[in-house]
Each structure stands twice: as C-alpha cells, then as structure tokens.
Request: fold
Amino acid sequence: MQRVMVSSCLLGRPVRYAGDAEACDHPALLRWTADGRIITFCPEVAGGLPTPRPPAEIQEAAGGPRVLRGQARVVDALGADVTAAFVAGARQAALLARAHGVRVAVLKEGSPSCGSGYVYDGSFSGTRVESVGITAAALQDAGVRVFSEHTIDAAAEYLEHLDREAAGELRPADGDTDMSRRPSGNPAAPVPTTLRSHRAGCVGPHGHAGPTATRPRKESDVNDDYQDDVDIRLWSDDDLPLLERLMGDPAMTAHLGGPEAAEKIRERHGRYLHPEHSGRGRMFAIIVGPHGVAAGSVGFWAREWRGHHVWETGWSVLPEFQGRGVATRATVAVLKRARAAGTHRFIHAFPSVDNAVSNSICRKAGFILQGVVDVEYPKGALMRCNDWRLDLLDGSPQVSAS
Ligand code: SF4
Reply:
C-alpha cells in the first residue's frame, strides 16, 4: 500500500511556529488515516526547532532548492540563522520517504519547509515567491510528488494511479510522465525492501527505553545502509525534540507502559544532559549521514548487578532508521566510550527475550549471553530479559558479522 507523507500541522498537530495547527478536514485525509496510509511529519520540529518559535523565511526570494544547495539561508524574524535546522528536517523527511517508499506528499502551502507552490521572499512583508520550500525540494529530489492542502484531489488521483500501477493494471509509465515537479528529473529513488518501519529499535529497561518489537525479525532483515556513517555525540539541549519522538510516541513505547508525559520527558532530558546527577555514565544522540541527522539515543550508566558494580547500556532508534545497522554501530561506539571511562570491567544489556533485533545487536556487538532474568520495568512490572554481558578488557569492541 502506497503511503502518503502529510504535514503534521494539517493533521491537527500544534507544531506551527505560533504553536497552533492548520487542521484540514478533506475527506481524502480522513480516508488515508483510516487506511493507515499516512506518515505524519513536521520537518521544523524534527530539525530541532522548538514550538512555538519565531517565524522564519528563506532569504532573498531564493526558494528551497537553493537552500539545499547551500546557496541561501533561512533566517527567523529575530534575525537568527536557522538554516541548519531547516536543512536537517528536510533531509530527515527525504530519508523517511525513502525508507517507506513514499511517492506522494501533501504539505502545508506557503511554509519555508513545506510550501509547494510558493514561499515568502525573506522580507517578512507577506510577499510571495513562486517556489518550493526546503523539505518539499528535498522530497522532490527523492522522487516524491508534492501536493498541498489545496490540491488534495490531485494527490488522491495520483495515489489511485500508483495503486493501479502496483496492482499491475498499468505499465509504470502510464500517466506518470509529469516530471516537472521533480527538479532533478529523476524518478523515485529505488527503495530497499528491508527499510520498512519496525518498532524494534529499543533496549535498556533502566535508562531510557525498552523492547518494543511488534514482530520478531530475522537477522537477514537487517540492512547496513550507513556502514561507517554512524556516530554518537554527547546529548545536547537541542535533543529534546528527538527524545519527544522516542519517548512520546505510543508505538515506540508500546512495551514501556506507554508514552511519557511531556513533563516526564523534560525530566529525562535533564538527566541525559547531566548524567552525573543520576548515576555516572553518559548519554549520546546517535547521528547518521553526512549531515549528522539525529536518529536515536544510546548511553551507558552505572548499576549494581548481582553484588558487582557494572555498566548497563541501552539504545533507542527512530523507526525510519531501524533495520539499517544504525543501532549496532552506535552501540559499538558507546562501548568504546565505556571502555575508555575505565570505571567498570563489565557492561550489560537487558533486551526482552522477545526482541529478536536487539538480541541480535548484542551478539553482533560482542556481548556474551549469560542467561534469562526478570527485570522490573516499567516500575511494578516484571519483564523477561536476556542478560548479555561484554568484558570491556577483552579487546576493542567492534561489529561482528555473525
Ligand atoms: S514545518 Fe510543515 S509540518 Fe511543520 S508546522 Fe510548518 S508547515 Fe506544518
């Protein structure tokens, strides 16, 4: 089934710069929601901007494609350069679209990110320029056809065409020759079949996440798209939106007692920023790709285990980055940090016994299975987990192929 990416604000999420939404009640949106077709996304929030935030415009009437090429900036009404956040959000949108094979998007018209017919010229005077926003441009480069809330009928028609094509009723080229909305002129990028969304990217009952697999996955499902392009950096003030996605999403937290309230997530964010207050260790954001897009969290912290002081590790990866080798590489990176810290010899991970992916990550990162244990998580509930242990004195951690 073809998925449709839709601006979060059009679906009633209060993510616009003013802290409000622009809910659209077009019947097609309701139908796609009921069908489970919609992927909702706000690139500005994903790029790390707060809500509310000052309005921003692309400068010098440049349009989104030039921002993506590094030839123009985005500046907010207070004069701050917010280009990096807009570009990061756009890149995440394109990655998400590729991961889900999205070929249709309905984005909010006029936004410097989402506009598909016009944006504003940078003078904050209400002057429009015929161009596309930065995310719309990135999606078009990824082969997605971008529509607005004013052209949803056309989007629905195109979607129907894609469905018929997929059902074999049409040849791929029938009626699909309008390349004008794709600046690069390229058709949709090929989508690896392994990049479906899986809710299996979390482990670590004590620190920050827990097992959330919706189905056991085979190891052969795990692709390795990023290879050496995964890194970690210390958790920063700007990572609150990332944590909100990781811990505020019902699907991501299905096995963690449900999503955390905003206040709880902020408290957790504070602990991640200052781990010395809540137990020695470190929390990191996982970053991927040349633009350092935030893909998840990983960390290590001290705990007592069976009478010994040890490290525990855990990770959480956004759905669009799961199944791509990201968690394994981030885990190996954090193991090196724990080894460098030198405080404890052993580090443990406690994925749920049902979480095939996280158990596979432990094995690939060099952990040795110790046995099955019951761990209290969330508070008041026992979770059956595998106890994996790695000896940090036993060579430098690295990704194993097995
Ligand atoms: S960036 Fe797009 S989705 Fe987010 S508030 Fe603006 S128009 Fe809506």
Summary: Confidence is low (pLDDT under 50) at residues 172-202, 204-226.
